[in-house]
Amino acid sequence: MAQITLIEAITQALAHEMANDASVVVLGEDVGVNGGVFRATAGLSEKFGTQRVLDTPLDETTIAGVAVGMAVQGMRPVAEAQFDGFVYPMVDHIVCHAARFRTRTRGRLSCPLVLRVPWGGGIRAPEHHSEANEAIFTNVPGLRVVMPSSPSRAYGMLLAAIRDPDPVIFFEPKRIYRQYKEEVPDDGEALPLDVCFVLRDGTDVTLVTWGAQVKETLEAADALAKEGVSAEVIDVATLKPLDFDTIHESVKKTGRCVIVHEAPRTAGFGAEVAARLAEHAMYDLVAPVERVTGYDTHIPLFRLEMKYLPSVERIVAAAKRTLAAS
């Protein structure tokens, strides 16, 4: 079986669902003829036709509104926000309509759309192309917020997102689109949403992260292991709704927690994880919770970009602080 990248796994999942469900359509800027700015939809227009792979105007508000209309009429649209910073004009339709239809209609209508959002920094892109804005959507009732961190999870979770009866925001960490490959069978097997994935077992400290930062966090766990520290690594994967039980069970074992994300620190989603630990795991902790995050600035361009993102060194230092505190 050939190995594929995360972006190729996205394409594979889209093609699988389009072949097996005629209600699945793809729409967005340049998704058809050009195959998307990151090539996520390459070949889909030729295979499924322009009635199901729709090149839209450069108008994110219209893309979101059309997707909502399609979804409530029984289709399963997969809309693309070309970059994370382009999602803001879509917020009105997603927050005020897509997320509310089930409640608004007392269950008579649902809105099974997926909004794919290439997400995060680290690719030397200009302003509006390197946002980590997941916390905006985790605060909205009625939305699922998903962020895979590997080709296999991208494939399985996108299948689950398309099949979900409610709207899903599907963040794709573009820094790792082509970073490594895995064998991903095109078997149509969805992965469960709403669960965390324990990527590495450990006994001394729990490292909680998601998206592109999974790579640095696993590398930090390797570095800690060389010093005799056993770190458990958890990929949150579905931020909303949060599988807190998995995190809590880990912290019961380790007594320590470091939360890693690249979004700005203040009111980032890591603060929600920390708050739940304070509410439910206070007596399991033997040291204060640490957060390793981006800074409360817009991501700096080019030269300082990688200094902004959490590094292996910063994660290791935070873990050592929790060990020294107990």
From TrEMBL:
GO molecular function, one term: branched-chain 2-oxo acid dehydrogenase activity
Residue ranges of domain Transketolase-like pyrimidine-binding in the record: 4-179
SMART domains to which the protein is assigned, alphabetical: Transket_pyr
EC annotation from Swiss-Prot or TrEMBL: 1.2.4.4
Keywords from the named record: Oxidoreductase, Thiamine pyrophosphate
Protein name: 2-oxoisovalerate dehydrogenase subunit beta
Superkingdom assignment: Bacteria
SUPFAM superfamilies: Thiamin diphosphate-binding fold (THDP-binding), TK C-terminal domain-like
Top EC class for this record: oxidoreductase
Pfam families, sorted: Transket_pyr, Transketolase_C
Cofactor(s) annotated in UniProt: thiamine diphosphate
An individual GO BP term: branched-chain amino acid catabolic process
Functional note: The branched-chain alpha-keto dehydrogenase complex catalyzes the overall conversion of alpha-keto acids to acyl-CoA and CO(2). It contains multiple copies of three enzymatic components: branched-chain alpha-keto acid decarboxylase (E1), lipoamide acyltransferase (E2) and lipoamide dehydrogenase (E3).
Keyword check for Nucleotidyltransferase: no
